[in-house]
Each structure stands twice: as C-alpha cells, then as structure tokens.
Amino acid sequence: MRHRSVGQLMTRPVVSVRPATGFKEIVRLLTEHDITAVPVLDAEDRPVGIVSEADLLLGECAREDPSGLLLAPRLTPEQAARSRAATAGELMSRPALCCRPEWTVVEAARRMQHAHLKRLPVVDEAGRLIGIVSRGDLLRVFLRQDRAIREEIRHEVLDRAVGLSPDALGVTVEDGRVTLTGTVDRRSLADVLERLCRSVDGVVDVTVLLDHREDDTVRPTAGR
C-alpha cells in the first residue's frame, strides 16, 4: 500500500530563526506568518531547538500579578532562566526532535504523541532543515476522497495483499468509514482484512460484516 509520507505533507519553505534572534523579532515573525513556533537553526541550518508561543509566554507567567490575587507560579530552575531570556538561543526548548521526509504519517504521529509535540522539523540526511510538519498537516490524510480510499482497498488490500479479486467482497466507504460485506473462506482472514483496511490513509473506522466458510480460529479439542 502507498502511504503518504512526511515529505508530501510538510510545509516549506520554513520560517526559522538563529540563536541570536531577539524576543521581539520572534514575536513579529510568528504574527506576520500566522504560525505558533519557529525552529532555531545553527550556522549549518541544522535545528538546535524550537521557540513556541509557550516559550515566549514564560516571561509573562513569571511576573507577579499586579492585583496581588494570584500566587506566584512554580517554575523549574530551567523555566525560571528561560523566563528572563531575550534571544532564541536562550528561549528555545531543546533538543529539537526531528523527523525525516520518508517517514509515514504513523511514524511522525507517534513521535509527536510520545514527546507531546505539536510539530516536527523535517531534516535531510545531513540533518539540515528542509520542512516542518504539524499535527494539522498529518490530519490532511483524512481529506482523501471516499472513492480513492475504496479503490485502494479493492486493489491494494484485496488484490495485492491477500490475493482476492477486487470484486470478491463488497467495499463501501462513507466519510472515511469502511464497511466490508460478503463471504471469505477463513474466519481469520476477516481479522487480517480489518487490520489492513485500518492502515489505509484516510480511513476513520472499519466495520466488518463478513461471513466465513471455515472457522480456523477455533482450536480442535484434544482427544482423551
């Protein structure tokens, strides 16, 4: 099956800054380009960190409440130091977790989820920045048309993956929700088909309404 890659979904060119870029210039870039974060690049265009709106707001969070009603925030020593920062190199969150353009949506999504990130810089083999991919970019796979999803399931899943005729089973797709109908030789094949269909880009859910001629999931009873 042909999964869309990070390289196909990423945004380019990327708005970036250098470690010496000042606080106000970063704010100006975020506002001008309607973005929420920028990668920080070294002299060889390799990402060394990310400055996000959250990083910029640390300074405001550290200030005392003028009304005196709010308690002072509890900041870690590292957060306290960054709350007084004035340049990208001092403000940035590090290290910059990156991904490669050949990664699948699943690989990128898992890295984001594991690290609690909203975006990943995309780098080439030398580690140089070539793009950036966000959660919103990854979600674009769900904009695939139902007809395209149906054809991929018929030809890539049924025909190529499991060796069935594309017309062997009924395949309907509505708003990304797949329904399989018909009869398969073995019950275990139904589970395989469901798993393969769920891996197709753009699939939201899979309903399997398949009969089977043989239940090969039941172990024979051992003789006494």
UniProtKB/TrEMBL annotation:
Superkingdom per UniProt: Bacteria
Keyword terms: CBS domain
Start and end residues of each BON domain: 145-214
Coiled-coil zones: none
Matching CDD domains: CBS_pair_BON_assoc (cd04586)
Transmembrane segments: none
Statement: the UniProt record of this protein carries the keyword Acetylation: no
UniProt domain CBS: residue ranges: 10-67, 92-149
Pfam families according to UniProt: BON, CBS
Protein name, as recorded: BON domain-containing protein
